[in-house]
C-alpha cells in the first residue's frame, strides 16, 4: 500500500470516528463544508415549540447550535461515537448544555440508550455511510420516535456529473425498504442543495400514529 492510499485510509477513518487533534480539526472542517445541507435538513424537520429532537452523529454540534438558536423552547440531544466530537459539541453548545436544552451522549446508533417513544423529531447528516447495522439502526430510530414523529436522514450521493451508484443502491434497495417494512409512513427520497459540488439528498419518513 502506497503513502497516498495510507493517507486516504487514515482520513476516511477519521471521518468515521474522529480521534485526537486531527479528529477535532476534521470536525470543525465539516462545519464549514456541510452548512448548505445542514440548513436544509433543519428546514425539513419543521421543529415546533416544546418538541424533543435527537441527532444521530452530532459531530461538533453545529446543527444542534443552529436549531437551538432558532427554537428556544425545545430540547436537542446529540449522540456520537467519538469522545472528541462530544467534547467539541459541548464546547460549541456550552450555554445551552448548562441550561439542559442541549444534551450529549456517547453512543452507537445501532443500540440507542433511550426509552421508547421519546422524540418528535430525529435527524442525521452524513452519517448513514458509516452505520454498521442498517436494519438495527432503522429499528432504533422507529423505537425512539413518538407516534407521528418524523426523521430526516441526509447524505451525499454524487459529485458534479458523477453519481455514486453504491450509495444510491444502498438507499433504494436497503434503507427505504427497511423503513417501509418498519412501518414508517410516507417514506420519501428528496433532492437537496448542491454543496461544494456534492449532490445532497434526504430520506424522510414519519412513524405511524
TrEMBL record:
UniProt cross-references to InterPro entries, sorted A to Z: Methyltransf_11 (IPR013216), SAM-dependent_MTases_sf (IPR029063)
Keyword Oxidoreductase among UniProt keywords: no
UniProt GO BP: methylation
Domain Methyltransferase type: residue ranges: 54-153
CDD domains according to UniProt: AdoMet_MTases
Pfam families: Methyltransf_11 (PF08241)
Keyword set includes Transferase: yes
Pathway: Lipid metabolism; Phospholipid metabolism
Record-level Gene Ontology MF annotations: S-adenosylmethionine-dependent methyltransferase activity
SUPFAM superfamilies for this protein: S-adenosyl-L-methionine-dependent methyltransferases
Keywords: Methyltransferase, Transferase
Name of protein: Class I SAM-dependent methyltransferase
Amino acid at each position: 500500500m502506497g503513502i497516498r492510499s495510507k493517507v486516504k485510509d487514515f482520513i476516511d477513518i477519521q471521518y468515521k470516528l474522529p480521534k485526537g487533534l486531527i479528529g477535532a480539526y476534521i470536525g470543525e472542517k465539516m462545519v464549514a463544508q456541510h452548512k448548505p445541507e445542514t440548513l436544509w435538513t433543519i428546514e425539513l424537520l419543521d421543529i415546533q415549540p416544546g418538541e424533543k429532537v435527537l441527532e444521530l452523529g452530532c459531530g461538533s454540534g453545529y446543527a444542534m447550535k443552529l436549531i437551538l438558536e432558532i427554537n428556544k423552547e425545545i430540547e436537542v440531544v446529540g449522540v456520537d461515537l467519538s469522545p472528541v466530537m462530544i467534547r467539541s459539541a459541548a464546547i460549541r453548545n456550552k450555554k445551552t448544555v448548562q441550561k439542559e436544552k442541549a444534551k450529549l451522549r456517547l453512543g452507537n446508533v445501532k443500540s440507542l440508550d433511550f426509552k421508547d417513544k421519546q422524540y418528535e423529531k430525529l435527524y442525521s447528516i452524513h452519517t448513514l455511510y458509516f452505520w454498521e447495522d442498517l436494519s438495527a439502526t432503522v429499528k432504533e430510530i422507529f423505537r425512539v420516535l413518538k407516534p407521528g414523529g418524523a426523521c430526516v436522514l441526509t447524505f451525499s450521493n454524487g459529485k458534479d456529473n458523477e453519481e455514486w451508484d453504491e450509495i444510491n443502491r444502498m438507499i433504494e434497495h436497503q434503507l427505504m425498504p427497511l423503513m417501509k417494512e418498519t412501518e414508517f409512513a410516507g417514506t420519501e427520497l428528496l433532492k437537496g442543495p448542491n454543496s461544494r459540488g456534492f449532490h445532497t439528498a434526504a430520506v424522510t419518513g414519519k412513524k405511524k400514529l
